[in-house]
Amino acid sequence: MLAFVTGATGFVGSHVARALAAQGADLRLLVRSGSDLRNIQELQAERVMGDLRVAARQLADGDLASASKGMRFGEIAKRISEAKKSTAA
Fold first, then answer.
1. What is the Rg, in whole angstroms, of the alpha carbon atoms belonging to the chain?
2. Per residue in 39-53, pLDDT tens?
3. Do residues 5 and 16 lie in contact, with contact meaning Cβ atoms separated by under 8 Å?
4. Is the CA virtual torsion 34, 38, 39, 43 positive or negative?
5. Kind of pairing, strands 45-49 and 2-6?
6. Where does 2-88 sit in CATH, by number?
7. How many Cβ atoms are within 10 Å of 67's Cβ, its own excluded?
8. Quick one: which of 10, 29, 43, 84 has the fewest CB in 10 Å?
9. Nearest C-alpha neighbor of 50 from the set 71, 26, 64
């Protein structure tokens, strides 16, 4: 199982990530630039630098390309955006 955890450097998120790791999950952790990584340093996980707040602002402004840049869920976001446009028409 692959688990994507946001907020993993925080108190709750780091505990969630550890619990998932203990269950054998492959972890992908979203961390903001400059985050203190001590809470997750011992975890075997892929760390992805990014900030959901920035992506949300870009999506709200209609800038899907910037919002999804470098993020693996970009294709999903693109399809959701296209679906919303086609149902609105």
1. 15
2. 899 999 988 888 877
3. yes
4. positive
5. unpaired
6. 3.40.50
7. 21
8. 84
9. 71
